[in-house]
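Hi again,

Forgot to attach this to my earlier email, sorry! This is the prediction with zinc ion bound. I've pasted everything inline since the attachment limit keeps bouncing my files.
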Amino acid sequence: MGDRDSYREHFFNHNWKTGPPPQHVVDGCHWCQLRAFPTHQQYPVTIVNKTGDGATLPKNFKFITQSILTQGVRAADANFRSGCGCADARACRYDGCECLSDMLWDEEDQEPNSDDSDSEMETSRNGNRGGRPSAARAAGQKRAKFAYHSQGDKAGLLRSRYLDSREPIYECHEGCACAESTEGGVVAADGDVDDTACVNRVVERGRQIPLQIFRTEDRGWGVRTLVDLQKGQFVDRYLGEILTAREARRRRSLSTMARRKDVYLFALDKFSDTNSLDSRLAGPPLECDGEFRAGPTRFINHSCSPNLRIFARVGDHADKHIHDLAFFAVRDISAGDELTFDYVDGTVDLASDARHHVAGMTPCLCKSANCRKFLW
Ligand SMILES: C[S@@+](CC[C@H](N)C(=O)[O-])C[C@H]1O[C@@H](n2cnc3c(N)ncnc32)[C@H](O)[C@@H]1O
Ligand SMILES: [Zn+2]
Ligand SMILES: [Zn+2]
Ligand SMILES: [Zn+2]
Ligand SMILES: [Zn+2]
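Structure tokens for the complex follow:
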């Protein structure tokens, strides 16, 4: 069924005038699933296929808006959950906000005059230890700091110090006392910051951009942004079924080619530590499988010169074992450009794999100048 045909079926058979069609219709229709997204009006996800190959999304795939905890996977019990007690949300940028307690960075790490220079520290009015950087440095203090810019043109963007790192991002969440940021962010059109809303909820707020899933000529489906993106801008999470390590192993073994299944499986291993006293972190990590249930980011292709990267993001510290996977732009991206990330991101030395090219390796079609030539 071609692009136009799938449109026709949607518009003529799946009538939304009186609300969503029955669940069994939505379950079998990708258009209806996207249409049912709560952000559909503001930030729609569309599907187009202009290649003429007539392909539609896989029938066994369904769009979801939240990851699904499968059998054996549990979020933390209510009595282990906690958030920060910041009554004034401006405090959620500084040492003292419990949500930032694990984000201790030496002040010396911060380059003066870099784009990370934290002018709001000097104008902090909240009485927290958000004093002048030089004062903090003189006292040899370590100061928690938050992952985003909170003022000016770059408000809400990940600081480059973070973009260049593999540090996890800690955010405020539903268990925090600070006020949730309102729809559309905390920065008004005139650039004014809404001081009452917590700025440390960027991933928490969810995708704020329209995306398009499109049929590429040579790599199946891909994803493009329909708006310009700035370096450091949050795109969306990677969603899927959260599996126990055992279930992930079972699904790999069912797949004809383990490496093929691997592209959909992300280990939630950012906090894994065999020495951890928390058994959930000491054992083999949970994995997120986006093959059958996921959001639009599941269709993002690989590039050896990618424009996105995945960061681990934590809300409640008791849920580190099910941390989020958040895509951020690592450079400015123009509207219409395809979004890509590096599937191996330094974990496998593909360059040496390529040198020892063996039959059966999958060629990389990313076309970037520094292409490593093979996916796996
Ligand atoms: C996670 S999926 C991405 C969406 C996929 N294109 C689709 O149509 O469902 C990964 C698959 O996309 C294809 N792919 C992604 N990046 C590629 C690249 N740079 N070169 C060749 N194939 C690629 C491969 O078939 C890979 O197994
Ligand atoms: Zn706080
Ligand atoms: Zn908080
Ligand atoms: Zn907060
Ligand atoms: Zn490549």
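The two ends are 31 Å apart (CA to CA). Residues 304, 364, 366, 368, 371-372 surround zinc ion (ligand 5) (CB under 6 Å).

That should be everything now.

G.
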